[in-house]
Amino acid sequence: MDTKETISVLNDLIETSKDGEKGFRECAEDLKNPQLKTTMVQRAQDCATAVAELQQLVRSLGGDPETSGSVAGDLHRRWVDLKSLVTGKDDEAILNECERGEDVALKSYRKALDKDLPADIRVVVQRQFQGVQRNHDQVKALRDAERARS
């Protein structure tokens, strides 16, 4: 894989991680349970850290790092807002949408790991993928616990 392709893959992951950061922040704003809010704020910060790391990799390759999320991420958040107006913003529904966002992130990271990335970059992407998997599993467990309470 040439440098240009590697930069493109990293920039796609930056968009995905920016989407995650925004999504977790919006979830935190809408959640009623203070512990869930705290968890989502922490996940948003984890995404911001991932973005900074990926942006630094792009710079080290001589590229211009992406600085915003994706159009698809914005559309998803708008759809979630619209759906929330109709169905109400209960914590279970918010966590369900948050998990859906993490499904997209997992898919993006898997796609990146299917590429022939340089070894040093693959290590970072693999570590971040594991973080996305942890986020997904945690959000799913929180959603399931919320569902059991209702």
TrEMBL record:
Residues in DUF2383 domain copies: 6-115
UniProt-listed SUPFAM superfamilies: Ferritin-like
Pfam families noted in UniProt: DUF2383
Annotated Gene3D superfamilies: 1.20.1260.10
Domain of life of the organism encoding this protein: Bacteria
Protein name (database record): NAD-dependent aldehyde dehydrogenase
Taxonomic source organism: Pseudomonas saudiphocaensis
